[in-house]
Amino acid sequence: MALKEYIEKAKEYFNLGEEEEMSTPSRPQPQVVQSQVKSQSTLQAVQKPTSQESDFNYERKASRQTENLNHNNKRASSQQRQTSTASSIIPTIAIKEPAAYDNIMESARIVRNGESVLVNFKNMGDQQARRSIDFLTGVVFTLDGDIQNVGGQIFLLTPNGMTVDAEKEMSILSGRNFEGMDNFQ
């Protein structure tokens, strides 16, 4: 008997008793006024999210914001690492003295790999040197780098992101070769 009372209390608790009464085969006549009221109430129910749905949406927004913050923090830390590693890297300058136009490709590859190249055309004829300078100018232009005439037949090729500020040194070296560099300090 206790089991029967327990089941009855459970039905009352979950309102199962009312559903049994509503499941009778009697059909109410539809009225136009009632359908309008029902549609308005269903619209209101659809438009207003329940507290559980709003909590879920709030949690989703919060998790998205947290993910965005984490992503931005990771991006900022990677940029800081890049700048710290960039400042710790000592730039190198390759020195090349090509004797023929065929040797210019090596200088172009070095600039493409992100290093600077100092090219001395003293071992090359004027026509080949001009042709080589034109080619290297095109290479540097494509890479958004820079080419500078350091003096006479010597050119400095720098890739994108590397700047050379050597006006003072250039004024000292104007008209001289690099063999006397040890005297200037």
How would you sum up this structure, described in words?
The structure is a single chain. This protein is α+β, with helices and mostly antiparallel strands. The chain has a domain at 93-177: Translation Initiation Factor IF3, CATH 3.30.110.150. Helices cover 58% and strands 11% of the residues. It is built from seven helices and four strands. It has a four-stranded mixed sheet, covered by helices on one side. It is rod-shaped, with a radius of gyration of 40 Å. 9% of the residues are buried. Residues 35-39 have low confidence and may be disordered. Its main location: cytoplasm. Residues 17-86 are annotated as: Disordered. Belongs to the SepF family. Cell division protein that is part of the divisome complex and is recruited early to the Z-ring. Probably stimulates Z-ring formation, perhaps through the cross-linking of FtsZ protofilaments. Its function overlaps with FtsA.
Radius of gyration computed on alpha carbons? 40 Å
Structural class: alpha+beta
CATH class of the domain at 93-177: Alpha Beta
Approximate helicity band? 55-70%
Share of β-strand residues? 5-15%
| CATH H-level superfamily title of the domain at 93-177 | SepF-like protein
Biggest β-sheet, characterized? 4 strands, mixed
Number of helices: 7
The succession of helices and strands, N to C, reads HHHHEHEHEEH
| Contiguous runs where pLDDT drops below 50 for at least 5 residues | 35-39
Region (Disordered): 17-86
InterPro entries: Cell_div_SepF (IPR023052), Cell_div_SepF/SepF-rel (IPR007561), SepF-like_sf (IPR038594)
Biased composition (Low complexity): 23-41, 75-86
Function: Cell division protein that is part of the divisome complex and is recruited early to the Z-ring. Probably stimulates Z-ring formation, perhaps through the cross-linking of FtsZ protofilaments. Its function overlaps with FtsA.
